[in-house]
Amino acid sequence: MSSSQKVVVVTGASQGIGAAVVQAFRKLDYRVVATSRTITPSDDPYILTVAGDIGDPETARRVIAEGVARFGRIDTLVNNAGIYIGKPFTENTADDYAAVMNVNMAGFFYITQLAIAEMEKHGSGHVVSVTASIGDVAISGIYSVLAAMTKGGLNSATKSLAIEYAKKGIRVNAVAPGVINTPMHAPEYHEMLGSFHPLGRIGEMSDMTDAILYLDSAQFVTGEILHIDGGQSAGR
User: Fold this and answer.
1) Residue 58 lies in a domain
2) I want to staple 33 with a disulfide (CB 3.0 to 4.6 A). Which of 9, 11, 173, 213 is the partner?
3) Residue 182 has what pLDDT?
4) Is 7 helix (H, G, I), strand (E, B) or coil?
């Protein structure tokens, strides 16, 4: 298959923001490598699905290797996979900690290493990670230590990688959302959740996909943490 078309890898791609990102890139005629634990084969010949635990280095290896074998290259990586466990800090268990670190941190580390190694071969590429506004600004009553520790860490890693790889033609950015309208938030809670944002509503899936596509096309933008949070990170 021709390697002239751009290729994007999307993690956490089976539902919610990840599934929307897959479709947004397909509308731009990207070839897509989509991965999650529960993802199923696609009827679209330009969507390659790879099932597995993104925190497992073997899954990361398969995703990148199979993507290159099918489409010839990797141009963009969207690190979307992530989990949130909302408990008071002292009630978090060792299993909670391990689960969050596995997906949010190991899931970023292994596949980003391999994707950047492929991008280096072509002297260009883009990594964009979905972090969280709560990683920058704590909100009273929201239990966010594990999220802040991991997503805030990814924000810092984004800036470090952006500088490390700038001269190699590889850009690294992040989008930091507030609450987004995904299946994990029941409609009866939308008004309450919207109150956390100065704009008075929760974000829509299109707010996220528009931001990710913007960063992917913005050739003079790197090291940016773009907050998609209705003003939450600016203050309340």
Assistant:
1) yes
2) 9
3) 80
4) strand
